[in-house]
Specification:
By secondary structure, this protein is mostly beta strands. Helix content is about 0%, strand content about 55%.
Length: about 120
């Protein structure tokens, strides 16, 4: 059974940094496009960043220049480095893996940016 397990969330002050990790199991990780989404209270889930199997990345406009996404295929793990965090980055962050008709989600990790 495919599992995506996120970690690294928490409480951070504005301007701080966090690194989220998503460890995948029971899937051919290297062929999947891996993405991070987030959902704030009362808002729709939105794409934050994605990285394809070949390493091409894209980012939401709101995080471009502050967040980076990377993957380690040897560890079946995708990362989201978040710098210069703002209160509006507060949300539950979800890991997603997608390849053709296969579409998997993690359970989410809470990120709270507050002083």
């Amino acid at each position: 059974q495919v599992q995506l397990v996120e970690s690294g969330g928490g409480l951070v002050q504005p301007g701080g940094s966090l690194r989220l990790s998503c460890a995948a199991s029971e899937m051919i990780f290297s062929i999947f496009t891996m993405s991070w989404y987030r959902q704030a209270p009362g808002k729709q889930r939105e794409l934050v960043a994605a990285i394809t199997s070949s390493g091409v990345t894209n980012f939401a406009v709101s995080v471009k220049g502050r967040f980076t996404i990377s993957r380690d295929n040897a560890k079946n793990t995708v990362y989201l480095q978040m710098n210069t965090l703002k209160p509006e980055d507060t949300a539950v962050y979800f890991c997603n893996g997608r390849y053709e008709t296969w579409d998997y989600w993690g359970q989410g990790t809470q990120v709270t940016v507050s002083s």
